[in-house]
Design goal:
single chain, about 375 residues, alpha/beta, 9-stranded mixed beta sheet, 8-stranded mixed beta sheet, about 30% helix
Length: about 375
């Protein structure tokens, strides 16, 4: 790669970088994408891709942290981003095995039956179509024995690798340049732009640089309020007849929580058993034990499901204390954006980040950007109303 001049440099070619680059390139920006590995690798390749508007932090619990008004805005914007991503994906004709599905949110150790009912009422008040299911209804419809559950609508599953590669292809088709492997080792940020230096000594001059690098960030990006999480997952053999009714996306109000979806070829993808980040060797050494634990939890829900893993993997991602991402200009680094803290909503928040960045760089003011921007204390806006 030679020295470059571009409007926007996107560092990271996972789902975040792909969605950001595609929107900006489609709007006429000169965009360069670089990644030290390659496209659709890192955290993206490990994603189980339950694409949901429901934030990891329940609406009722998030409201205690940041206030009802801010929590409701965050949830509504997440809902809008999921819908916008579906519309854009269909518009571009990206084949990613996208499957619209309802979501089933089961009572757990964070929200019991009474907590689930309060959560359902809060979601309805916020405008989300939500069914509040009792134990008997849950048993009758799904054969699941839990005290209560919520059923929501508008979510979907997808193949994360195909989704990311589709958006990278669309970005390049709109004029973006993609270079890999390229590692950025230094950034100089100025009032009118930034200069990135690569490990080979090449320079990339740009008006704006966006770090969309999962859980790997330069030292100048503040990480207060964020932590690294490792998650574990398995995929079964195809077994369409043994899958649960509606093949809904399933997760639970627990910490850590079990999550499940189906694939287009009839497999069950099951994940959970999250732990605070450990290095890759230590994380991967836990895989066999974690997969067994995940399988046992899934079998308790659906005894007829064969949870024998055909594939198993582990991945690491960044999460925040309140379940909200951080999307904004890095303090003291003008024209340098970073997006982080996605938790279990990686694809959803990637689209949200792309929308906020596009609106800002085209001269607009995103109405929800204030919720997600960097703050000195590492948290998000608290407006208790």
């Amino acid at each position: 790669m030679a020295d470059l001049n571009t409007d926007v440099l996107v560092v990271g070619a996972g789902i975040s970088g792909a969605l950001i680059a595609e929107l900006l390139a489609a709007d006429g920006f000169d965009v360069a994408i670089v990644d030290r590995r390659g496209g659709a690798l890192g955290s993206t390749a490990a994603s189980t891709s339950l694409i949901q508007y429901e934030i990891d932090e329940p609406l009722t619990l998030l409201a205690r942290r940041v206030g009802v008004k801010t929590a409701t805005r965050a949830w509504r914007r997440s809902h809008l981003s999921v819908a916008n991503l579906a519309a854009r994906t269909d518009q571009l004709g990206i084949e990613c095995a996208r499957q619209p599905r309802p979501s089933l949110y089961l009572a757990g150790d964070r929200l019991d039956a009474a907590g689930i009912r309060r959560e359902g009422e809060a979601r309805r008040e916020a405008g989300f179509e939500t069914d509040i299911l009792t134990r008997s209804e849950l048993k009758e419809i799904y054969g699941v024995d839990r005290p209560a559950a919520l059923r929501g609508y508008g979510d979907y599953g997808a193949d994360p690798t195909r989704l990311t590669k589709g958006y990278l292809k669309a970005a390049v088709g709109a004029g973006a340049q993609f270079y890999a492997p390229v590692e950025i080792t230094a950034i100089k940020s100025r009032a009118r732009g930034a200069t990135a230096t690569t490990s080979t000594g090449r320079t990339i001059k740009c008006g704006t640089v966006v770090f969309a690098t999962g859980y790997e960030f330069p030292t100048f990006v503040p990480l207060k309020g964020h932590r690294m999480i490792s998650t574990f997952a398995l995929a079964t053999h195809p077994q369409r007849r043994q899958l649960w009714p509606e093949e809904c996306l399933i997760w639970e109000a627990s910490d850590p929580y079990l999550y499940m979806r189906t694939t287009a070829d009839g497999r069950a993808v099951i994940g959970g058993e999250d732990e605070d980040f450990v290095d890759e060797a230590e994380r991967d050494a836990l895989l066999d034990r974690k997969v067994i634990a995940i399988g046992k939890k899934a079998r308790r829900l659906f005894p007829d499901l064969d949870v024998t893993p055909r594939f198993a993997w582990a991945g690491t991602f960044g999460a925040s204390e309140d379940g909200l991402p951080t999307i904004g200009v890095v303090p003291n680094y003008p024209n340098c954006w970073a997006v982080l803290g996605y938790g279990g909503n990686g694809v959803t928040y990637s689209r949200l980040a792309a929308e906020i960045i596009r609106t800002t760089l085209t001269g607009g003011v995103d109405p929800d950007a204030d919720i997600f921007r960097f703050r000195a204390h590492g948290g998000h806006a608290a407006t208790r109303k």
